[in-house]
Amino acid sequence: MKSVLIVLSAVWVMLQCVGCRSGHTSLTGQGGSPVDSKLINTYNDIALQNAIVSQHTLYPYYFVNNSEKLNELGERDLAVLANHFVENHGELNVRKGDIGDDLYKMRVNFVSEKLSQAGVDIERISIEDGMPDGEGMSSERVLKIIQKEDRPSSATMRQTLSSMYSEIGAGK
Amino acid sequence: MKNKLFSLFTALQISEVFLILLLFLGGCSKQQTYNMQHSSSNLKHNGDTEFAKGSDEKPSPETLYFMADILAAQGKDEECGFLLKRCIYEYPRFVPAYNALAELRMRQGQIKESIQIISRGLQVYPRDVVLLNNLGMCWMIRQEYAQALELFTTAAGISPENSRYRANMGVALGLMGRYDESQSLFAQVLPQEQVKKNLEILQDAEKCPTRL
Questions:
Q1: What residues make up the domain containing A83?
Q2: A38-54 confidence digits (pLDDT tens)
Q3: What residues of chain B lie within 8 A of the CB of A149, using their CB?
Q4: Model's pTM, two decimal places?
Q5: Do A148 and A95 lie in a common domain?
Q6: What pLDDT band is residue A132 in, cutting at 50, 70 and 90?
Q7: Cβ distance A74 to A58 under 8 Å?
């Protein structure tokens, strides 16, 4: 009799646990997934922000063509840099690309204005036409090397590139 | 006394079994109801009228879209295209249909038509990032890299945390020979070794565009 009762109790407990498994799973799913995805999003966000800050460079693709104004992506990434420069001093590179001197000056002024509007003390940062790795090789030099190679085979190109980027990486 | 106790135990046992059955059946009432609604016997009673009602209604955009998807998987491109065109005509605000039809036309090598379809979608939703990105891809296939870059940049501006649009910008810039800019974008979204690899591929592709 006792054993029958024990078996029945065990079956009851099992049914309680297993009977509504689908409902239970969906509940944990609903509770768990958003938290997980939010964590991932936050991480991605920080990784991207760190990359933007470590490059601290505004390339021509951030600007509207033939204009001193930043495009939407430029505005957003500059906001990340502004947040950094509010609390830190340092260097901001604005790459000139193939635009004329006048337009380049206008771009620098536009960026300076945007930064001071965001609360950055412009005196604490220097804006120049540099590469992300400080004193590294300039893009003009890199392009000259590629031209000098006179369209070599892919193997030579790979060799050139690997040596080229190790030089930039070392900041020589 | 013994008999009384025995009858009490039996009563308890019966009530316990009854309770278990009750919990088992009642605990999953939702599932049960769902099954009941879809059982054939139920259809016999209520389903005919429900089914008849449904046959008069026009299919939803999702239904048309998924039917087109099935047809595409079966290789029935013509029927698939017809269904997607109908979906766009009847539901012009249903964006996935534009993308699917453009993709179908791209598969068929009709890039010009693909561009027209996505452009029509962008007239409805000018800031739809998927449409913008796909239009950029069309221009890239036509080797119009500057136009492709503009579209990828717009998409990246609207959705700046999406690494795909930044990477696509990097590809367009690389194919335009603007390697330092391309590298900067790859470095924002990819590990260093993949940045190098991508640049190598792009340099090879720039020399020989047919390799893309």
A1: 40-132
A2: 444 434 568 899 999 99
A3: none
A4: 0.65
A5: no
A6: confident
A7: yes
AA letter at B147: Q
Question: Is the CB of A41 less than 8 angstroms away from the CB of B157?
Answer: no
CATH number of the domain that A87 lies in? 3.30.1330
Percent above pLDDT 90 for chain A: 46
Cβ–Cβ below 8 Å for B188 and A131: no
All structural domains of chain B, each given as residue ranges with its CATH number in brackets, are 58-126 (1.25.40.10), 145-212 (no CATH)
All residues of chain B having their beta carbon less than 8 Å from the beta carbon of residue A52 are 188
ipTM field = 0.70
Within 8 A of B17 by CB-CB distance, chain A residues are 8
Is the CB of B20 less than 8 angstroms away from the CB of A12? Answer: yes
Q: How far apart are CA A110 and CA B107, in angstroms?
A: 44
Q: How far apart are CA B63 and CA B56, in angstroms?
A: 15
Give how many domains chain A has, as a whole number: 2
Distance between CA atoms of B135 and B168, rounded to whole angstroms? 12
- Is the pLDDT at B78 greater than 70? The verdict is yes
With CA atoms as reference, the chain B residue closest to A43 would be B161
